[in-house]
Design goal:
heterodimer, A: 394 residues, mainly alpha, 13 helices, B: 301 residues, ABC transporter involved in vitamin B12 uptake, BtuC, two-stranded antiparallel ribbon, 12 helices
């Protein structure tokens, strides 16, 4: 049956997981003010903690922040780097938003991105031609690869009733090993080196032809603004519109809010939930394809014993976190992803200050917690008040 | 030592490392928390143990510090997810990233030397053919696993606390009605998980490796989660599961030396694949705690 009810003004939190901190409590202006105040305090504490960590190790927090700001927005190459990084994160984040809105916890974007890029590389190297159409095919293959990687958890969930949380998590590591396997086998993807070459073949694929490189918006000395940021923002806008205004979006949100009710009005769990998982995977895979055609142009294997894929470079986890910070809204994900891109770009230049760039991960994690905290705190307060009122009544 | 003894020795070593972490995860999961920050707890424990052992010159102090760090990370998880009720996976993801960042950062900024606890051979027992070396000639932290396994089983299956723990993992609403504080029990389970995972991490850094490298747990926390699944949330079977996964790890290290060709990637991915197949096959068996991964925000009244 078709669902004709108008889309509600505000969306409901997805379901039993209390994933989203729904705005039910945000009824008064004072609550909104309190929320903002708490948010500022929490972010302040987060940045304070990171500064303290820098100070403890004998470096100057001021210098670190200055270097990070310089490296992320201080010059044209810096801004370009911020946008290029943010774009990849944003594509993953949009997919993550869709899954979260359906009440699904897909913590496998890193693996989906990796496997998508692997499929993209395979197609790109197999194609006899290069250029625009080849890029399109590579990107499609990457998206399909990501979706395939998300298909496994979807099947397990909707056929066998296995929670998607663990399956998506575990499949990440299977993806890394799959890539490692492929780029260590000359009959699969490992690069071919001339027989007389002094260097041995590395665990990486051949380079895609130069014609498979994504176009640039702007090109200059020391910088190259990828077209990916435009693609990413458009995808975010489309996703936001569809979630808010289309029948599919309504079903998705309803499904996330309460799968049982959604089923009563005709939403098939496998189709809506499974579809959301596949979409999330496809977005992650597409991000892998964009990373491939925009920047790296080849698949890299990394260490055979490591768990983090070296190609994916944490973009999958970051996109996931960006979606969390954006509270599952693709529109909010745009600035959040660009902020994460700025952190990454800023972290890249930290070497000059002698401070290790792993501080970036610390800042990201603290920001995630800081942004999540205020809404939940207010929710807890509302619950306590309600409980107190109930006690008075009885 | 011949090849078999060598492989058995590494199996016991690597399996016990997983078991320290998996026993903690088992408790947390039986109480209903799918605790993915167990990876961060172990990594934090590994770093702190290595750092304190180096600074103080005492591996025992290092071990204790590692356990304390596991507890500290656990308390972040417990308070945020089971007092302030942020989604447990959100907290877990952030904690893993946080610990990875902090430990990698401090490792790069501080100068930490190497230090390792001694191998202690237990007289007589270590002379048992074939398995003697594997079970009774290890770095001494290893021997803690022997009392820990029955202790965990007793805690979970034979104490009131354990019964309540299982109750809140199966049906938090019903447990709450009988007067059990659901969130408190879940927090306590996470604290204990932190102690175990911290100990596991300390065993890795000051026991097995004798130093710290960034991300040195390398996903062993997630393999421990897989082991709990394969072990169907029971203590005894989890022991077997960790030995199987430890064996896969040991084979990966040993096979090239013996001259057997086998893709190391397959052996690394094996625990994850085995766990996925297990979930697929036994999905309808209702073996997992019924409320696993489900948040609890109090009774709707």
């Amino acid at each position: 049956m078709s669902v004709t009810a108008p889309a509600p003004e505000r969306e409901a939190p997805p379901g039993e997981e209390s994933l989203s901190q729904g705005p039910a409590w945000r009824t008064t202006a004072s609550d909104a003010a309190l929320f903002t105040l708490l948010l500022v305090i929490c972010i302040g504490i987060a940045l304070g903690l990171a500064s303290a960590l820098v100070a403890v190790t004998g470096s100057s927090p001021g210098e670190v922040w200055e270097a990070m700001i310089q490296g992320s927005v201080g010059s044209t190459p810096a801004i370009t780097s911020t946008l290029n990084h943010g774009a990849i994160t944003l594509v993953v984040a949009v997919g993550a938003c869709i899954a979260f809105r359906a009440g699904l916890v897909n913590i496998g974007p890193e693996g989906q991105l990796t496997f998508g890029a692997l499929m993209g590389t395979t197609v790109g190297l197999a194609l006899p031609f290069e250029g625009g159409f080849a890029i399109l095919l590579v990107l499609l293959a990457a998206a399909a690869g990501g979706a395939v990687w998300a298909l496994v958890p979807a099947i397990l969930k909707y056929w066998r009733g296995v929670s998607e949380v663990v399956t998506t998590l575990l499949l990440n590591f299977v993806a890394f090993q799959t890539v490692s396997f492929a780029v260590n086998r000359t009959y699969l993807l490992q690069e071919t080196v001339p027989a007389d070459s002094p260097v041995a073949a590395q665990p990486q694929s051949d380079r895609l032809p130069e014609g498979d490189r994504l176009g640039a918006l702007a090109d200059g000395v020391g910088y190259r603004l990828q077209i990916t940021i435009v693609i990413a923002v458009v995808l975010a806008l489309v996703a936001a519109f569809l979630i808010a205004r289309s029948p599919w979006g309504l079903r998705l949100r309803m499904f996330g809010f309460n799968p049982h009710i959604a089923r009563r009005v005709g939403a098939k769990p496998g189709r809506i939930g499974g579809g959301a998982l596949l979409l999330a995977g496809a977005f992650a895979g597409l991000a892998g394809g964009l990373l491939l055609t925009g920047v790296v142009l080849r698949m890299q294997g990394g260490f055979s014993s490591g768990v983090y894929g070296s190609f994916s470079n944490n973009f999958g986890w970051e996109g996931l976190l960006a979606a969390l910070v954006a509270r599952f809204r693709p529109l909010y994900a745009i600035p959040v992803a660009i902020f994460f891109g700025a952190l990454r770009a800023g972290g890249g230049v930290l070497a000059s200050t002698g401070v290790d760039s792993s501080i970036v991960g610390v800042v990201q994690a603290l920001v995630v917690l800081a942004v999540t905290l205020p809404a939940v705190l207010l929710q807890v307060r509302a619950r306590r008040r309600q409980a107190a009122m109930q006690r008075e009544r009885t | 030592m011949n090849d078999v003894e060598l492989i058995l020795e590494s199996t016991a070593r690597l399996g016990s490392l997983l078991l320290f972490i998996a026993l903690g995860e088992l408790l947390a999961e039986r109480a209903g928390t799918l605790n993915i920050s167990v990876e961060g707890m172990a990594l934090g424990g590994a770093f702190t143990a290595s750092f304190v052992a180096w600074e103080s010159g005492s591996p025992v102090l290092g071990l204790l510090a590692g356990i304390a760090c596991g507890l500290a990370v656990a308390s972040i998880q417990a308070v945020l997810s089971h007092r302030i009720t942020i989604n447990q996976f959100v907290v877990g993801l952030a904690i893993n990233l946080l610990v990875l960042g902090v430990t990698s950062y401090l490792q790069a900024e501080l100068d930490i030397g190497r230090g390792q606890v001694h191998v202690v051979a237990i007289p007589l027992l270590s002379d048992i053919p074939v398995v003697g070396g594997a079970l009774f000639e290890q770095r001494w932290i290893f021997y803690l696993i022997y009392p820990l396994v029955p202790l965990t089983w007793w805690l979970l299956m034979r104490t009131r606390w354990g019964l309540e723990l299982r109750a809140v993992g199966e049906d938090p609403e019903a447990a709450s009605i009988t007067g059990i504080s659901v969130q408190r029990r879940r927090r306590q389970a996470i604290y204990v998980c932190g102690l175990y995972a911290g100990l596991g991490g300390a065993f890795l850094s000051v026991g097995l490796i004798g130093g710290f490298t960034p991300n040195m747990t390398a996903g062993r926390g997630f393999i421990a989660i897989a082991a709990v699944i394969l072990g169907s949330w029971a203590v005894g079977r989890t022991v077997v599961a960790t030995l199987i996964f430890g064996g896969a790890d040991a084979l990966r290290l040993a096979l090239p030396a013996i001259g057997v060709e086998m893709a190391p990637q397959l052996l690394i991915a094996a625990p994850y694949l085995v766990a996925l197949v297990t979930m697929f096959v036994f999905a309808q068996g209702r073996r997992q705690p019924a409320a696993l991964g489900r948040g609890y925000e109090g009774l709707a009244t």
